[in-house]
Amino acid sequence: MTAIDGHTADRAEEALPTGYLDTAHPLETRFGDPDDPDNPVGFAAFLRADERGELLPAGRSLLDTYQLGAEFVPAAHGGRLRQADELAQTLRPVFRRDAALGLGHGAIKLIASATVWSTASTDHQRWLAQVLLRGGQAAGAYTELASGHDLTRSTVRATRDGTQYRLTGSKEVINNVNRADSVTLLARTGDGSGSRDHSLLLLDMSTVRRDRLRFLPRFRTAGLRAVHLGGVEFLDCPVPASAVVGELGGALETVLRAFQVTKATLTAATVGCFDTQLRMVTRFALERRLYHRSVAELPHVRSVLANAYADLLISDCLSSTVCRALHVLPGQTAVYAPATKYLVPLLIQESVDQLATVLGARSFLREGPYGIFQKHLRDLPVASLAHSGATVCQATVIPQLPRLARRSWLSGQQPAPASLFRLGAPLPELDFRRLEIAAGAEDSLLAVLPDAAAELRADPELGPLSARLVTELAALKASCTALAPRNRTPLAEPIGFELAERYSILLAASACLGVWRHNQDHPNPFLRDTAWLALALRRLTARLGLPVPPGSATAEQRVFTELVTRERENRSFDLAGRLLA
Amino acid sequence: MTTTTISSTTEIRDWLRERVAFYLERPIEEIDSAARLVEYGLDSLYALTLCGDIEDEFDITVPPTLAWDFPSVNAIAEQLHDQISEQRLADR
Amino acid sequence: MRYGPYAAAARLDERLGDPQDDGRLFSYARCAALDEGEEFPLEICRELDFLGLPRAYVPVEYGGTLLGYDEALQLMRVVARRDLTVAIGHGKTFLGAVSVWTSGDAEQARRLGAEIAGGTIVSWGLTERDHGSDLLAGEVRAVPGPDGSGYRLSGEKWLINNATRGHQLCVLARTDTSGGPRGFSILLVDRRTLDPASHRPLPAVALHGIRGADISGVAFTDAAVPATALVGTEGGGLEIVLKSLQLTRTLCASLSLGAADQALGLAVDYANERHNFGRPLVDLPQTRRLLTESYADLLLAEAVTLVAGRAINALTGELSVSSAITKYFVPTLVDRMFPRLAKVLGSRALLVGDTYRHGRFQKVQRDHRIVGIFDGSTMVNLHSLVNQFPALVRGYRRGRVDLAGLQAAATLEEPLGAFDRTRLELVSRPGSSPVQALPLAVEELCELAEAGEVGTVVGTLATELRAATDRLIEQMAGHRPTALDVPAEVFALAESYAACFAAAAAIQLWLRNRKAFGSDELRHSGLQNSELRHSELWYSGLWLEAALTRALALVDPTLRTELSGEVFDRLAVPLFAQHASGRLLSLLPYPGEEESA
């Protein structure tokens, strides 16, 4: 292990909060043992609800009793939302069991409300806070099927008519729209396809004229079968002019802010699904016997499991760090959030496909002790697509890269402060208004990579690995600086997308390095050890298509041992490693 | 060893024990010539590769299922000895 | 030139009617509804029976029409191109019967052939609940009957395709209590003649994909089976299964090709009809790239399948290698195609029901996951390759090539010789001719490049491939053979070797057919039809360049960043032209394209 004395100065921080690690999250406790077939909110019950295509009623009432709605309301408005990384930790117990419940009866409220929190309209905020605090439903009607995530092409129109607006057009594939008490609507208030032609309206559904409203039939999806995706058609429907939230014409700007929060938080929450899938396959490998021994004794299987675990840790490092960056580096998350939302679902999906080869036929069954594996496998792509898909995220990252490359990368940029990486440590309350709609000239998360690499130079394993990644950063800098203007738009050639991908991978490496070096006082020796970091950096190096410097064979073994230990001790696989129910 | 003379059953047996020990990554002393290969975990498919080694070593052709039909080192050694002897006679 | 097996496939396809027409039995709409309701596609399978498809599962010598396995492949491909549940549910009868074709006696085979032609469903009972791919751990046992004749069968087979619907079931059963490679036998059990009290079906299992399929099981309790049920010899079970799997694993590629055709077709459709940022999606360079890369994968997968399919007849002794590679490589390549194409389709990739194209994309993606699992999973196939490393290294170093066999496997015009089951081998002694012929083939390509008959890039790529293969073979040689713990990195070598095989097969296919499909005369003939369109693919080695670029990145992933993706952009024209004609996306012209072009 490498000494990191150089960084003790940075740790004039408070001690890491650790007392909670040996307890289960209160929501986890309420849900109880998911494997118990008789648990009304266990895997078996969620699988049956998925088959029926309905959110499990017992799961909904559990979340209502917990008053989950308050988690999405900023503390300033009487709710419990203070920190994005904490919110993700709260959602993980739900996502471990059922992403449909987590999204459809949970995070969808964040998607619906984050835009409102991102404006200065305190009246609207107060009203929406009340709706959520009393357990009401909120829907976010932003996208339309015909224009997808290209919000500038939205066609629902709000036309001014005296003291009213008249709404026309329809929004499709909207979660919970027919059950919502409040609908946050993105509507066209100008004629162009520019950035000032759309506004947000907050609709109190109890007052919207029913004869001017049609609810569209439910849309069904392969995953998240239980969520209610509906649609709504406005037929010259009058709403008061006061429904406009924030500035007229300001919707796209607001959305760009708000979605940084939802992208980071939702991505971090889905690590809970991955946890369950990895747990299922680990358990299968330990229990199943083939060719006179347990499957887990096959070196290839151990390797798949250890590498999947490294992927999970990478996913958590990146997504949790970006959640914290919303507080610590609000001027930079306009690039971090979409980079995370692009990379993490991809990492998880590819890792899960590898895990499926171990689980074999069991990965294809909707029943039996491993049935939840394929449910999560179906759910993840649908959950990942909620409000912005991979291509949109990449397209958001690309135009921001050339300036960052020129001004920040390997150009004396100060690395991000230690507080960004301190696991579970308190942060100033989340302030949606401080988020910038585009990253400026600073990239302090990525600056952790060269900084850490310099410090690790002498480490036989981490030294060459991080040095190789810095070389790659230099190459990326050159390519992004030289990126032709036409390649900075959505019409970019594939090279732009390739660079965005490489950037995301290096960002993930930086997050891993940051988490490792700034948590050396963590009670779990595994997190202080280099094994997981070495394996994670190797995974990322290979993902870049680079030759992986030879490393110690024990890293994989140590990661595998921790995986088995956590499964046996019934702890979560994420960085927190908290007890489970 | 390229055999110009016919290997004795014992020589073949010792060579086979060495190969089996090699594949199983165990000391040669632990390989009992009379035991069924299956019991060492050398069943099914892997036994097939042993035949490639045998063909290279003794310059003969054997069915890939040799170790299935003659499931111990002793049984294989005897079978091989017979086959090699017959072939040498025929070559003469 | 016309590719013979396409004629029969196109005839079948045409007789099944337009799948977009809801009034047809085999329509997309019906398949989607059956999937959602988890119903077996009974009426569609009956339609296939009426059209005589079962006879294609029976070798000619036993009364059927099966002569070359390349034709069987294409028939299954056009069925899979409509629906995988149907292809798997119907094609299963071939899997059920294959043990008899490879190892049964002639009388038994003729009887079974007649039954199948008449609509009898045969299934294959290999796996058990607790043992999966570990066949030698099987607990279903057959003991001699009380009067010494026949057998008494007991135990459970589980996760068996058509276990409940099947009339006959080829069961792998333990006939020697101590087990071992000679301890199992194959029994062809006619369930219609069994005492009903002695067997019962196990409930159908709820599946992630192919939801309508009958994947269930059967439990035997002292079921009396006559001695004539034995296939081959007693104790021959494992050998029969392993040899039979060499045929079925190769044929599985047809399911993947059909699935890839569906997915890519849907994505191209959508990219054409949909506008983004003011332009049709298909004009966005990144979208085009996602499509053309997938097309390159499809063509590479097709090249492997064409060669491996003909190899059943032409390089029979090498099937233990080529079938394991095909079964690993093709489904894996296609599984990885879906997420890429899903990016193009966005939310339409996930929708179920009538909102968009009957939810076909998510369905075929779910359905196809089974192809990499059944009939020998990815891990099983890679393991089988690892076990053959010594022969593969030896064969490459010695440059051992069955020239006549390779020529026959790769030359599509050449009529295939009859399949000779006695040439099936459990392990391939000579290694793998396509890979071992690589040095020769690369030389040939480089000469053509020098003569200007193929782009210089192709020569460069081939030379790089040769170097990468040399390096790989050295790494494989450095792997200490072991019966027990195969290190994880050795699996990666097996994956790379499979990609080498794919590239080598593609090169052979191009070299042996370039004149037939891409000659100068054809190019300048003024033809405005599919043959011309395909000649664009063949001429100058366009498709080969694309396929080699894809394969090389799989042989050695660190080469990926050095490879230019520009070649994929040049595939856009042939891809869109083929797609617009509504026919099969393929290296080869599919009958009937002129009419609709």
Mean pLDDT of chain C: 93
Unreliable parts of chain C: 593-597
- DSSP helix fraction of chain B: 55-70%
Tell me, what is the CATH class of chain B?
A: Mainly Alpha
Oligomer: heterotrimer
Q: DSSP helix count of chain B? A: 4
Instruction: Using the coordinates shown, work out and report the CATH topology of chain B.
Output: Non-ribosomal Peptide Synthetase Peptidyl Carrier Protein, Chain A
State the end-to-end CA separation of chain B: 20 Å
The CATH homologous superfamily of chain B is called ACP-like
Summed over residues and divided by their number, the pLDDT of chain B gives a mean of 82
- Tally of structural domains of chain B: 1
The level of helicity of chain C is 40-55%
Query: What's the β-strand tally of chain B?
Result: 0
State the CATH architecture of chain B.
Orthogonal Bundle
Per the principal axes of the C-alpha atoms, what is the gross shape of chain B? globular
β-sheet strand percentage of chain C: 5-15%
Poorly predicted parts of chain B? none
**Structural class by sheet pairing and helices of chain C:** alpha+beta
Instruction: Report, as a whole number of angstroms, the end-to-end distance of chain C.
Output: 18 Å
What would the principal axes of the Cα set say about the shape of chain C?
Answer: globular
Number of strands of chain C: 11
